[in-house]
Structures are given as structure tokens and as C-alpha cells.
Amino acid sequence: MSYQQEKELALRIVAEAAKLCQRVQKTEGGKAVKKADTSPVTVADFGAQAILCQGLIKEFPDDPVIGEEDATLLQKPQLEGVRQQIIEQVQQSIPSATSDNVIDWINWGNGKVAPRYWTLDPIDGTKGFIRGDQYAVALALVEAGEVKLGVLACPAFPRENGNKGVIFLAIRGQGAVEIPLEGGTATPIKVDSSSNFEQLYRIESVESVHSDRKVQTAIDQRLGLTYAAKQMDSLAKYGAIARGDAHLYTRVPLPQFKGKKENIWDHAAGVILVEEAGGKVTDLDGKPLDFSVGAKLSNNHGVLATNGVIHSQVLTAIQQEK
Ligand SMILES: Nc1ncnc2c1ncn2[C@@H]1O[C@H](COP(=O)(O)O)[C@@H](OP(=O)(O)O)[C@H]1O
Ligand SMILES: [Mg+2]
Ligand SMILES: [Mg+2]
Ligand SMILES: [Mg+2]
Question: In Gene Ontology terms, what is one molecular function of this protein (predicted)?
């Protein structure tokens, strides 16, 4: 399948959602409210989800959508001001939007896994967005448990010419490309397939509780990595591997989060990006990530993304650390 219609829509709505995020960052800064699990969420997270879902409803009304956010929180009377800001921000992108529309679009992301579905993270790396660091708008199409298309907008991603802002796109069997966020030429990207660990870079989250740093350091020592790990928020890490800026990314659940599983939207678009750029992604046991079970990667334990050539060696080092 060529996925031409899906590709055009995904590129358009992800770019539009990224614009909203940039606009909110300029006007509101990093203002956030707390969700029930105490994690932060901003006007931009909700607004971007509304824009993404609106586009998907229009062109693919039969496809379920599984997104991170939910508008229930916005019913709280003390969040009326935030609700208004979200509506105004969405109206700047979609002038005909009513307040009911916006809430319905956000809640469209409450879909369930099906033979074909979309999953999205309106802002991955909300903490990075709040700090003014990396974040990503992520959208992926999954069929029969396999990611078929992934788009990542990374508005703060550095480019060679000194500008910032990249869209990464990958379609199964068609390779991976990067496109300037403001539009322009799509440039094919490939992993860096070096296998000399002394010269390879591991990349990790900025947030230290998202992966076990003690285990990671032990794995690095086993592999003979000499460079300090690069740090980056969000799915942009997958982009860094896909374009050869880094070579391995491990996400090792911390003992205190034992049993907590990864969200599908935190990985889907990144997985296809790395795979189509020539790399490999599995869990820490070497199993493919299973996107057929629900909103969580319940059948998997942690994540390992590499340039491909070093994958089995890294898996062996991980097994030895268990
Ligand atoms: N204890 C934990 N372990 C693993 N991932 C976690 C976590 N707490 C939060 N996260 C996820 O980590 C994501 C950010 O990833 P990263 O560390 O790579 O920047 C968050 O996405 P959101 O920012 O979309 O909420 C959130 O879903
Ligand atoms: Mg996320
Ligand atoms: Mg998010
Ligand atoms: Mg979140």
C-alpha cells in the first residue's frame, strides 16, 4: 500500500499541531496544570490533540484514535480559564471550531485498539516543552499490530543550517525522511551503522526517572562505550538514532515502577522511523514491540532501539545485567 492519503493528512495535521504548540509556547510560556497522576499538561497538549483528531475524524472517520489526553479534567470549574485558552488556540487554527467541537475532538482520542487504528501523542516530552527543550508531536498508523506510518514533528530539533524544526516521516517499505518544519525538500535519512562501541553514542531521557540509569551505566561499561550519553526529551531520541546522531537508546523500567508499562503513543512513530532508517527496535528481551494489545505495551518489557548492527550485542549485555 502506498498510504498516500494517510501521509498527506498526517504531515498536514502534525505541522498544524506543531504550529499551535509554538504559538502557545510564545504566548503562555511553559504554564502547566497537573493531571490525576501528577504529570503536567498544558494548553498546547490539549489544543494539539484537538487539531490532530479533527483532521483524522474528517478523512478517516472509521479509524479509532488512541491519544494521550482526555478532556474530563477540563470540567473542573477552576480550569475554566485553561479551557477557554485551549478553545481560542484551536480557533486560531480552525476558525469555525466551537467550544463543544474542541472538547469532542480531544475526546475522540479515547478510541480502542482495532485491526487498524491511529495513535497520537499531542506533545511527547511535555516536561521538555515546559523547560524550552525538545518535544515532539507524534502520530502513527497501526495495522494488524504493526506500525505502518509514523510522523514526528520536532519544533526544537537542531538543523545543520542553524535553524530549528524538523518533521520526520516513515512509511513501511518506503524508507524514512526528514523535512524542514516550515516545509521544503524531504531528505532521506539513515542510521549510522558503525559498530565500534568506543565511538558510539547512547541517548537517554533528560528525566532520570524514565529509565534506570544504574543499569544503563552497567550496560555501557560491558559494551565499552566511552562517550557520555547524550540526553534528549521525547520521541526526538528516535529521530536522533534514525539520522545517525546517536546509536542506541534503552528504556529500562526502574524497580519502583515495576509492572508499569510503556504507552503505545510514546513509541509507535519512533519505532517505524528507526526501522525504516535501517535500525532495529525491540524490547529488552529482544521481542518486537506488540502494538495489538491496547494503549500500553503490555506484552513487552522496556525498549531498545539501535542502529541495527549492534542490536544483538546490546541485547546480550542487557541479559547479563539482569
Ligand atoms: N516513570 C516513567 N517511566 C517511563 N516513562 C514515563 C514515566 N513517567 C512518564 N513517562 C513517559 O515519558 C514520556 C516522556 O519521555 P522522555 O523521557 O523520553 O522524554 C512522557 O510522555 P509525555 O511527555 O507525553 O507525557 C510519559 O508518558
Ligand atoms: Mg508521551
Ligand atoms: Mg504527551
Ligand atoms: Mg503526558
Answer: inositol monophosphate phosphatase activity
